[in-house]
Amino acid sequence: MAENARLTPLQLRRQLLVARCENQRRTLAVEVARIRQATAWLPPAARSLRGAAPWLVVAAPIAGFLLVRNWRGLRQLATKAVVGWRFGVWLWHLLSR
After folding, report:
1. How many domains does the chain have?
2. Which of 93, 92, 57, 64 is nearest to 78 (CA)?
3. Which residues, at least 6 apart from 78, have a Cβ–Cβ distance to it below 8 Å?
4. Are residue 35 and residue 66 in the same domain, yes or no?
5. Would you place residue 80 in the very low, low, confident or very high pLDDT band (cuts 50, 70, 90)?
6. Does the pTM of the predicted model rise above 0.70?
7. Are 73 and 62 in contact (CB under 8 A)?
8. Whole domain around residue 97: which residue ranges?
9. pLDDT tens across 20-67, in order?
């Protein structure tokens, strides 16, 4: 207490700013760790996409043509695939916790 009484207001302000800075650094480190954990799936997904890219170049126009031509079965299959993919991603995140 006596030590604080000898400090000038400017020194007290500096200590407060240093303490806030350390707090912000810790918070930022936690946020960076969370972001890294949340985006850990991106590099493997990008590798998979690069591997599938030649097939996607061929399959995308064909699928688009078939969907436009009112192929009900393919449209239903595509809808089910999207729903299944979303469910799989949700389940993966649920089980990976």
Report:
1. 2
2. 64
3. 63, 67
4. no
5. confident
6. no
7. no
8. 53-97
9. 999 999 999 999 999 999 999 888 888 877 877 788 788 888 877 777
